[in-house]
Structure to design on (249 residues):
């Protein structure tokens, strides 16, 4: 079983969301997977109520604020996301960290908000190209993971991790299955040390960064890669269905 997640980013308004679910034709093998779509928050209600949405697909939001409510113009709370139909939340996506300056401290607060509202955080970690060139991959991703683990301490709820090397996101550059396996094994070893073997195995680690139908099966075949987080290729129902089928093999 693999987790196949689509991050729609700031794409797909209500009409496109309805069209996506009407056109999406998942094959039988996709049932072996956990399927997630993260629409923009304005399309979440439409996606949740869409009669054409395959019931195997769960929904999430791409970001939340850590406060339950208040004067935070433009923000969405965890409770609001849950009420609108989200079960999962992307936390610390690289675009949040690098475009909007989100820090590890804010990531931790958002994880805590997810935990208090029964939402499953999908915590994203990943290094930039210059950090990779400086040989700092492990230091960066473990620093991001440790901040997340502190926020998750004492919480038995589910969480997912996503390794998304920043240089591979939206660039067409994909990490090789070996690159992914190396980073995922570093993360898994830290999870085991922090949580114990059994609990670490239950935390899926997704790979993200230019995943497409042509490379999904190879990436999903790499050691410790339990799923994929797909941006651009998740906007097209045919390519999302192909990636979902690759995870079912
Ligand atoms: P991409 O995006 O597949 O378009 O590279 C992945 C992501 O940002 O989650």
């Amino acid at each position: 079983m693999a987790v196949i997640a689509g991050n729609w980013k700031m794409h797909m308004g209500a009409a496109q969301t309805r069209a996506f679910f009407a056109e999406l034709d998942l094959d039988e093998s996709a049932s072996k997977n956990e399927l997630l779509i993260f629409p923009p928050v304005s399309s979440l209600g439409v996606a949740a109520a869409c009669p054409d949405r395959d019931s195997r697909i769960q929904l999430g939001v791409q970001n939340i604020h850590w406060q339950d409510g208040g004067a935070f113009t433009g923000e969405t709370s965890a409770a609001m996301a849950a009420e609108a139909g989200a079960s999962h939340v992307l936390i610390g996506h690289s675009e949040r960290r690098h475009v909007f300056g989100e820090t590890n401290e804010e990531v931790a607060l958002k994880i805590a908000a997810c935990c208090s509202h029964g939402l499953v955080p999908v915590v994203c970690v990943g290094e930039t190209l210059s950090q990779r060139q400086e040989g700092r991959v492990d230091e960066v991703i473990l620093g991001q993971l440790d901040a997340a683990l502190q926020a998750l301490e004492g919480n038995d709820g589910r969480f997912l991790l996503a390794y998304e090397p920043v240089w591979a996101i939206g660039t067409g550059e994909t990490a090789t299955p070996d690159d992914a396996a190396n980073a995922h094994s570093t993360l898994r070893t830290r999870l085991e040390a922090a949580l114990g073997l059994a609990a670490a195995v239950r935390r899926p680690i997704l790979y993200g960064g230019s995943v497409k139908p042509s490379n999904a099966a190879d990436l999903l075949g790499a050691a410790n890669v339990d799923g994929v987080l797909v941006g651009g290729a998740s906007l097209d129902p045919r390519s999302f269905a192909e990636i979902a089928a690759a995870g079912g093999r």
Q: What stands out?
A: The two ends are 9 Å apart (CA to CA). The longest strand covers residues 120-125. The chain has one domain: 3-246. The domain at 3-246 is CATH 3.20.20.70 (TIM Barrel).
